[in-house]
Each structure stands twice: as structure tokens, then as C-alpha cells.
Amino acid sequence: MYIKTLQIPVHYATTKRKRGIMNCLTARLSYAVRLWCKLIEENDIRTRSQLENIRLQHRVQEETGLSAGFVQQAGNKALWMWSAYREQHALRKRMLSKVKRDSKWYEKLLNREPKLPCTSKYSLIKKQPVRFDRRTGRIERTKLKLTSYVAHISTLAKGETIDVPLNPCEYHRQLLEKGIVRDFELIWDRDRKRWMVHVTVLFQSVPQPVAEFMGVDLGVRRAASTVLMRPGEKPHDHKIFRNGKLKLQRLNDHISHLQRLGKHEALKKQRNKRRNVSEHYDWLLANELAESCRNVLVVFGSPDYIRYNNYRGNNKRYLRKLLQSWSFRRQTQYAQTKLDEHGIPSLVLNEWGTSNRCHRCRGKVERSYKGSWQRVKCVACGLEYDGDFGGAANTAQRGMSVLGVKSPADLTVLNGAGAPVERAQTRDDSAEKVDEPRSPAL
């Protein structure tokens, strides 16, 4: 099973009355989320069972005037926000325990204290989206001439509901007919000045058996490099994907040139061009990766720690600039979505140290070898190879060790039990488990 989120705009012919009701409802829900954040902090709530305290729910219900379903949904949103905050706080604490106290990196970590939920100025202005489930709303098909789908939403008045017409494109209609609608969010797009409905749709695919591991090394200069590997055998079938990197670099240089000249009118025309071009090439890369995979378990290397450690002032300005313009997280998310459509399991692991170690003897490697940044040489065994090849091979080996695969016989057990796939929690999955499928926006 996999999930997609469809960003469907509200129809332009929606009446002012319905727009006003949506505005009041989302504002009241945002207020309820802030109240829940304070109650979670005061009562040290960490689980959903603790969140179902009748006394606390009645308190929020009296102050906001919302129904019980809306109050519980706002509580789930606040609980997810606090879970994300505690995770970031624990990560920072682990990093501080590994760094010397007198170093410059220790001072940088001290200043990176994550903010409490609903305490920043931006969070007080921005409305917090809350998921609508069957208790408070649903997406329905209609026979109206104006639109084919409406969002049936409960209002602040008891027993009163409204039907908000949607404006889906043909692609949205095909996905809505193919999948199962789980829930949706009502969001005000401040940039486009219009209401959007983010619909979460659940799909089912036929899983493929796992015969090999594929390590994927997302690169700054190259889009991606992949290597196939079986337990106890050497890596093979190295593929390099060069998808749109050169065109994006030229576009970045053009925008930087306009910024230096101060041509603001020309910059306004280029406002969203780089993002649109980057997303387009990320989807092309995801499609190319999914089409090249058959009967494999794909292991992606996530450079989160690499970007986290390249802070301002570490005398690596060029590398930091490359990392900031690199959409590795979006590339991984899009690729995993396409792999789920084909029934191919995937795993995302930290790639720290995969490019600095030899995949054969685990020794350190020497970069910039023979005048090429891509060529590396192992100091211990003297093996010369492509750096992206070694990074992808080490990523595949790390995936085998995490899943406990040491021999080809373990692959049979893995296929029989179903490959465990490490998922990234969606932004509002407060009541879902961590291994919930991803939900990229389309």
C-alpha cells in the first residue's frame, strides 16, 4: 500500500458565504491546536492514550466551541508537532555528546535549540492545517455541471454542513477513481491567494520479490549512481544518471547574475522557474530509477548529517552552497513514490561515511585522484574506482546489515515475511505509525 496527496484547488465559483465559513473554521482549528500544544506541555503528554483525557478534551471544546471530532483532530496535530520537536531535541543532544566542548562546532550546536511548537511568530500568524476524517468531512463524487467532486465539510454550527466544489484536473480525477480517499486537509495558499484541498488517497500495488539490493548514491554533480549487489558477492551493474544538473546550474548562474545587477523586475519573472524546473527533473529521475529496477530492494543514502555538519563558518563555502541547492529529500521522496507504484520496496538510511571508505576493505580513500574528483584510491588496498560506485556499494551493504541479510538464503525469508521498509512520517500523521507510507504532493 502507498499514499499520494493530491493538491486540488477549490473551485473559483465558490460563494463568499462558503469561503467565510472555511476561514472561520480553519481559524478556530488553529486556535485549538495552540491550546493543545500548551496542554501537552503542561501535562507531559506523549502518547495518544494520554491525549484521550476527557477532562482535557472538554476544556478545549469549551474554549473553542468545536465538536468532539474537531477537538480530537486538533489534538492529533499538536501531538505530532510535539513528537517532531522531541525528536529534533534528542538528535541535538546526541550530537552535543559527541563534540568537544571547546570547539566551534559545539557553539554552533548550542545555538541550534529547536523551538517549541506554536511559539514562533510565524506559527502564530500561519493557520495550522488539520486533517478531516469521516467524522468531520469527506470527498464525494457529484453530478453537478460545475464540478465532478465536492468536499462535504461540517461547520461550527451543530448539524450544519456545506459542500465545497473542487476544481480537479483530469489527472486528479483518474487518481480519485483509482484509489481510496482516506482523509483531506483544508489549506489557505498565501502565495496564490486561494483555498486548496489536499486529499490523501490510498493505493495498492503488487509487490515484487527481492533478488538483489540496489544502492543509490544521490550526487551533487551527478543526479544519481546505482549499484546492484547480492549477499556475499561483488557489486556490479554500475549506472550513472545525469538528469538536468547542467541546466539547473545554468539557471542558478543566470539568477545570481540578475541578483548582482539588481534587476528586480526580471527576477520576479524567474521567481518560481527554478523550483518548477527542479521538480520536473526530480520526477524524471524518479521515473528513470523506477523503470531500471526489477526484483530489487532499493537502499537510498540520505545526506542529512552531511548538510547538518556543514555549518556557516567551517571554511567550506563552495560545498555548503552545493548542498543548499540540492533537493535530495524531494528526490528520494519522488523516487520512493514511483517505486511503490511498481511494488518495489525501499529503505532510506544515513549515508555518513559511505564515500570515504573502501567498499572492499573498509579502508580510507584518497580523493581527487589522477586529476579527477570522481576517481578515488584506497590507501589500504590500493584499489582504484569511481567514487560514486563505492558510495552506492557501501549504501547497499549498509542496507543488508540493517535488515540482517548475510546470505542469499536470507532473501527467501525476506520475501516470505515481506520486506520491512523504513518510511518517513507524513507531516500530519499524528495518529499513524512511523512506518506509514509517504505522501508526496502532486
Helix run count = 15
The CATH topology of the largest domain turns out to be: Nucleotidyltransferase, domain 5
CATH architecture of the largest domain: 2-Layer Sandwich
Total number of distinct structural domains: 3
* Residue windows where pLDDT falls under 50 for at least 5 positions: 417-440
Shape: globular
The whole-number mean of residue pLDDT values reads 85
Alpha-carbon distance between the two ends:
17 Å
Strand order of the largest sheet: 10-9-8-11-12
How would you describe what is shown here?
The protein has three domains: 6-12 and 132-203, no CATH class; 19-122; 212-417, Nucleotidyltransferase, domain 5 (2-Layer Sandwich), CATH 3.30.420. The chain is 43% helix and 19% strand. The chain has 15 helices and 15 strands. Strands 10-9-8-11-12 form a five-stranded mixed β-sheet. Strands 1-7-6-2 form a four-stranded antiparallel β-sheet. Residues 417-440 have low confidence and may be disordered.
